[in-house]
């Protein structure tokens, strides 16, 4: 719980903390102004309009049903319950029960994709899985070098080719190599595509198709990395990626650097996608499993 609380401090202090203060010891009865104030703060925290409206309506009903008349601890608990109901524990990743499992990592430039790959590889290695990385972002020499550096840091081999090589060919070779050398999981990096560039997005679909020629049903997970600091823009990105590849889950990065942590609720509610991991710092161990209870508690001032 402590890493959630420290990592979500900016969101908590800026918006949800203000909600908690407002609902701490109210002596005036709840009225429409109360709900308007809560709504404004939720929108500022980047829950998005649709999700905010749903939270307000559900919380109003809870307050009516439970006879809550004042903006006090009971109303805060009702709001927390409404938020918690939007979230689910992510399903176990589909990376077991076969010779080789493929995880495709996608996302726009600057989302924290490469560092997330390294952190994920470390987590899987610590779970005694044999992991290999593929430097599928062949458009930038720096991207290849960055992944190789991270691979050395977390002691995971990296398959790479020269800058400018065909990324689909690299993925084919890496998949064949991982299979031949007895690796259990191959994590494939891809170029940081702008979601508006349909040529590059089409390349993603090609990479996905190539991996399935070596390993049946591959990729088995397609994880979309979203920069938490971009708020609702991340939701628009996710929609575009889902058009091209079957996104199975989300990694939300940089939540320790933003007051917009409410976007996590929109990912579940608006997109219907599970958040598998969240990034709560720059250290290699700061990619953590998403835990709904800890997440919601960390948004409020309660010392839980």
Structure description:
The protein has 304 residues and is α/β, with parallel strands linked by helices. The protein has 2 domains: 2-85, Up-down Bundle (Four Helix Bundle (Hemerythrin (Met), subunit A)); 101-298, P-loop containing nucleotide triphosphate hydrolases (Rossmann fold, 3-Layer(aba) Sandwich). The chain is built from 12 helices and 8 strands. It has an 8-stranded mixed sheet, sandwiched between helices. Helix 7 links the parallel strand 2 and strand 3 (158-159). The longest helix is centred in the first third of the chain and has 18 residues, at 49-66.
For the structure shown, list the relevant keywords:
304 residues; alpha/beta; Four Helix Bundle (Hemerythrin (Met), subunit A); Rossmann fold; 2 domains; eight-stranded mixed beta sheet
**Roughly what is the average pLDDT, rounded to an integer?**
91
The CATH homologous superfamily of the largest domain is called P-loop containing nucleotide triphosphate hydrolases
Taking the sheet with the most strands, its summary is:
8 strands, mixed
What is the chain-wise order of helices and strands?
HHHHHEHEHEHEHEHEHEEH
Give the amount of beta strand, in percent: 5-15%
- Please state the oligomeric state of the protein chains shown: single chain
Shape: elongated
Structural class: alpha/beta
How many β-strand runs? 8
């Amino acid at each position: 719980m402590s890493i959630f609380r420290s990592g979500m401090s900016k969101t908590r202090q800026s918006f949800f903390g203000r909600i908690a203060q407002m609902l701490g010891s109210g002596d005036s009865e709840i009225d429409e102004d109360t709900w308007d104030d809560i709504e404004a703060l939720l929108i500022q925290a980047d829950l998005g309009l649709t999700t905010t409206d749903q939270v307000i309506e559900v919380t109003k009903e809870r307050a009516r049903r439970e006879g809550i008349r004042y903006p006090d601890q009971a109303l805060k608990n009702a709001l927390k319950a409404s938020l918690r109901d939007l979230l689910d524990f992510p399903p176990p990743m589909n990376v077991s029960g076969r010779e080789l499992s493929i995880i495709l990592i996608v996302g726009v430039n600057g989302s924290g994709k490469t560092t997330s790959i390294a952190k994920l590889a470390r987590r899987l290695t610590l779970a005694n899985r044999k992991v290999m990385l593929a430097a599928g972002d062949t458009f930038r020499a720096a991207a290849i070098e960055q992944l190789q550096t991270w691979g050395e840091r977390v002691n995971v081999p990296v398959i790479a080719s020269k800058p400018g090589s065909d990324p689909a060919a690299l993925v084919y070779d890496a998949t064949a190599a991982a299979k031949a050398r007895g690796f259990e999981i191959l994590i494939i990096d891809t170029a940081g595509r702008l979601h508006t560039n349909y040529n590059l997005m089409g390349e993603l679909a090609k990479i996905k198709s190539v991996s399935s020629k070596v390993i049946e049903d591959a990729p088995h997970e397609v994880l979309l990395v979203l920069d938490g600091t971009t708020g609702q823009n991340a939701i628009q990105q996710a929609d575009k990626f889902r058009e091209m590849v079957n996104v199975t889950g989300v990694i939300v990065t940089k939540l320790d650097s933003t007051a917009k942590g409410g976007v996590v609720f929109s990912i579940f509610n608006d997109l219907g996608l599970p958040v598998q991991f969240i990034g709560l710092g720059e250290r290699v161990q700061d990619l953590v499993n998403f835990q709904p209870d800890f997440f919601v508690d960390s948004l409020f001032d309660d010392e839980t």
